[in-house]
Structures are given as C-alpha cells and as structure tokens.
Amino acid sequence: LGGLGPIVGMGVTAFPRTGVCNLLPDYQILCILDSSDLSWLNRTVKVKSAKRDFAGRVEKLNTLALLRLRSTQRYLRSLGGNISLFIYKSSKLIEEIADRNGYRLLASRSDLRDAYEDKWEFRRIAREIGFPLPAGEQLTIDNFSREVFGKLQDKLGTDLVFQITDYSKGGGV
Questions:
Q1: Phi-psi bin for 116: left (phi > 0), alpha (psi -120 to 50), beta?
Q2: Dihedral through CA 92, CA 25, CA 39, CA 34, nearest 10?
Q3: How many degrees, rounded to 5, is the angle at CA 61 between CA 162 and CA 69?
Q4: Predicted local confidence at residue 163, as pLDDT
Q5: What are the residues facing 79 on neighbouring strands?
Q6: What pLDDT digit, counting tens, does each position of 81-118 carry?
Q7: What is the reported pTM?
Q8: Which is higher by pLDDT, 122 or 34?
Q9: Distance between CA atoms of 64 and 59, rounded to whole angstroms?
Q10: d(CA 131, CA 88)
Q11: Beta strand 27-31 with 46-49: parallel, antiparallel or unpaired?
Q12: In this predicted model, which residue has the larger pLDDT, 122 or 46?
C-alpha cells in the first residue's frame, strides 16, 4: 500500500466506511450526513461530514453528489497529491471526476464491474463452466406468483432469499 497517499473513504454515511480504518495508512472518511455516531467514530478515524463541515448543498444522497461539491474538491486538494478514493461503487461520472483531478479509485471501474456484476449472467456462466452454486432458481418478476412461491418452498425449503438480479442502480432493494 505504499505510495497511495491519503486514502479517503467516501459515501453518504461514515459507519459503512470504517471497516478498513485500521488496515489502511493515512485513512479518513468523508461523508454527507452528520449522523449521531460521528463523534464516536472520530475516536478511531478522522471523519468529515459535508453537512457539518462544508459549505454547499448536496443535491442527492450519493457519492457522486458528494464528489461534485466544490467544498469537497477544495478539501481533497488540501490533502496534497496522490489521493486515493475508497468508494463502494464507481460510475462513469465519478471516474471522469477522479481522472480529471488525478485521484486514484480504490474500486472496480464501472466498465469492468458492469460486465461481471449482473447476477443473472453470473449464474448462467457459472452453470456453463460447472462452477458449484448454492441451490436456487432464476425467474423473471413477471413469472413470480403464490403458486411459484409454493413450488419453490417445496423444492428448496421454507427459508428463502429473494434477490432482484437485474436492478442495476442503487442498493437495498
């Protein structure tokens, strides 16, 4: 990890970015929300909140909106050169800003991620090459019904997990 320079975990809230705080040298967090846990988190890692520490209104609650803030750009420049951004999920627009400003992204670039993130396609490829997969079924939402649900329970058991595999934007759906 030598030569990375300052590493800034960025996102809407600070807590999900704390997992690497003891692993990465010169790591800090830049988030949007001024949540009640920030004073506690600041004991372990330096945390800046756009709502609390920066001027400017954040358009949306996402990493791109945080990165677009002039105050965020000023803050990142104040850290010196060779800045690395640790983000959950990149996008073309985030990559353009990072490239333009010379920031290194510690995340898969969107063209690579998009090619392999599609869970439907992943399961298809895995079956094709004989890769072992957990028991499961793939079906379109239009083909899901109470009858199908019952058949899935009969086949797989009553403890089922459903995941939308073709939803490409946002999490927690």
A1: alpha
A2: -10
A3: 145
A4: 75
A5: none
A6: 899 999 999 999 999 999 999 999 999 999 888 777 77
A7: 0.73
A8: 34
A9: 9
A10: 27
A11: parallel
A12: 46
